[in-house]
Amino acid sequence: MDKEKIERAVRDILEAIGEDPKREGLLDTPRRVANMYEEIFSAINKDPSDDLQVFFEQAGHEELVLVKDIPFYSCCEHHLVPFFGKAHIGYIPRNGKITGLSKLARVVDTVAKKPQLQERLTTEIVEALEKQLNPLGVIVVVEAEHMCMTMRGIKKPGSRTITSGVRGAFQSDAKVRAEALQLIKF
């Protein structure tokens, strides 16, 4: 990441909006923004499936594994303002192939740390689990509030966008999907 280039660009933006980048309160802003961008866009070009460590368990568990209410923060690629919310991830292991629960949260973080669309974020989480775990089924539900709808444009604070991605057993079996959705709402 070219932090010096970001700093120059932030100074240009401050000037373009009529501010003085040499004003006391703004002197360190370009550096702060560059450091922030380094952090919030740290997963550009990273494969989220690399976050999933695979374990083989003797228990042979082939029932739903669900982690819900995983918080995330991302940045809308259309306006470069935040959107934030929570993700719910469920999968049904195949042949005892599971991952650590924290790894599911790590996948969410990785996918969120780049300029993003909620729809793509949802799909990338699903695809990472499919690629690395080859489960019998995957379900991902993402709920988020988008600041591009809250603080600008239509200005509708509190509105939430919900996206989902379902594959395998969750796609083909309505009872399996209904069970997962009920547990997510619970």
UniProtKB/TrEMBL annotation:
Biological pathway: Cofactor biosynthesis; 7,8-dihydroneopterin triphosphate biosynthesis; 7,8-dihydroneopterin triphosphate from GTP: step 1/1
The keyword Ligase belongs to this UniProt entry's keyword annotation: no
GO BP, one annotated term: tetrahydrofolate biosynthetic process
Enzyme class: hydrolase
EC number: 3.5.4.16
Keyword Nucleotide-binding: yes
Binding site for Zn(2+): C76, H79, C148
Alphabetized InterPro entries for the sequence: GTP-CH-I_C/QueF, GTP-CH-I_N, GTP_CycHdrlase_I, GTP_CycHdrlase_I_CS, GTP_CycHdrlase_I_dom
Annotated SUPFAM superfamilies: Tetrahydrobiopterin biosynthesis enzymes-like
Gene3D superfamilies: 1.10.286.10, 3.30.1130.10
Catalytic activity reported: GTP + H2O = 7,8-dihydroneopterin 3'-triphosphate + formate + H(+)
Pfam families given in the database record: GTP_cyclohydroI
Domain GTP cyclohydrolase I: 6-184
An example molecular function term from Gene Ontology annotations: GTP binding
GO cellular component terms given for this protein: cytoplasm
Keywords attached to this entry: GTP-binding, Hydrolase, Metal-binding, Nucleotide-binding, One-carbon metabolism, Zinc
UniProt xrefs under PANTHER family: GTP CYCLOHYDROLASE 1 (PTHR11109:SF7), GTP CYCLOHYDROLASE I (PTHR11109)
Entry similarity comment: Belongs to the GTP cyclohydrolase I family.
Subunit relationships: Homopolymer.
NCBIfam families registered for this protein in UniProt: folE (TIGR00063), PRK09347.1-2 (NF006825), PRK09347.1-3 (NF006826)
Name of protein: GTP cyclohydrolase 1
Taxonomic source organism: Thiospirochaeta perfilievii
Lineage, top ranks: Bacteria, Pseudomonadati, Spirochaetota, Spirochaetia, Spirochaetales
